[in-house]
Amino acid sequence: MAVDEKLTGRVRDALSHLPNVEEKKMFRGITFLVNSKMCVSVSDDHIMVRFDPAMHEKILKANDCQDVEPRFCYSKISAEQRRKISFLANFCRGQPRHSGKKPESSARRANFAANCKIWVEMGKRKYKGYVYVNENAIPFKKDLDYWIRLALSFNEKIRFKNTEK
Prior knowledge:
With 165 residues, the chain is α+β, with helices and mostly antiparallel strands.
């Protein structure tokens, strides 16, 4: 996990006036939670900011930032699914199977390929209310403070969902 310590320190200083700030290793970096709710995350050369999803398009147009898109995550799929995805990737590249097992039927491969395609296409959606802000776009304290204020204003509005039965 690569984390920019200088950028992390700047975010830590910007949030230091608040009483309930936690730091957790999440999202390939250090995430700052205010009142146990995600606010800002610092990674190698950028921050990820959470704000009101209703303002998403306006924020994108007016600022130097990027949409947050989900990444393919092997940790959320079973070993069998990983094996099949690996096989499918090799099959598409024309590489042999190497497992010594009987080849799967073409119908089964086509069905699996279709399922993978649907899964990957679903993963292409953008997360509203989250943006990446490159470190170069926040060279001054006032620039970082803008994003911190934006995140904190939304943080005050959101409520926990009651998950207890």
